[in-house]
């Protein structure tokens, strides 16, 4: 029953987004909304590994950039349409997640986190030296002028990212309400005890890294058309790793809803700060908010709400 309500809500949100494209003619609104929706995908993807299983991943930028440069490669080589780019980016990033997971998931705690950060450094070095996709100097990508049913391609990208955001949230919801999600929770709570109870922890962690990597790659696929110019500095930007970690922690890491709340609140605040103050304030803002939540509400907004509700019932 809850699943039907979630799907109905998702369809309603999509229809509302399409209605906005029919009535609002403000390209910056669509660009800014695209970024917020992109962070919904990244935060949700990060939470599948970092929140559900408790393995903190600092390599979001690597998986995102793999999606970006897979799309660039498909555009240059095959002139592939956007749906093919998205699928290809997800598959490549998912396979990278599977491979890296197999190599690093026997590490725990800070060792695993450092390994994922090293992945981003290694992949960025590879891309910098790969001239076919632009190398260090970057590459220009010309997006189509129009898309069917839309006045311009910016509106189309906004709707595509909205669809990807909804899809990622549905995936997280399905995982959370399945045996897979219960296995992830067992790993997060006490991995040694889960192994003793017969939970296939390595297999579940590999599934988590693959799904998380797939969604991060999917988020990166429309990026070349979004900016029209791709370079390693923008694709591997540190803000992706920082935001994708901070947003679930602000919203709450134990539920599919937490990353959505954190991404919308922090992402919107960053876009407002970019226009009114400076884009350089974004990471400072995230750092301050994250410290405040770690100190005052370590379980995020959802945990704070639950605590207040229990206190009220008491």
Strands of the widest sheet, in order across it, are 1-2
Rg, nearest Å: 19 Å
Shape: globular
Total number of beta strands: 2
Mean pLDDT: 90
Residue share in β-strands: under 5%
Intertermini distance: 30 Å
Structural class: mainly alpha
Number of discrete helical segments: 14
User: What characterizes the major β-sheet?
Assistant: 2 strands, antiparallel
Low-confidence stretches: none
Fraction of residues in helix: over 70%
Tell me the quaternary state.
Answer: single chain
Order of helices and strands: HHHHHEHHHHEHHHHH
Overview of this protein structure:
This protein is mainly alpha-helical and 314 residues long. It contains 14 helices and two strands. Strands 1-2 form a two-stranded antiparallel sheet. The longest helix is centred in the N-terminal third of the chain and has 24 residues, at 27-50. The model has no long low-confidence stretch (mean pLDDT 90).
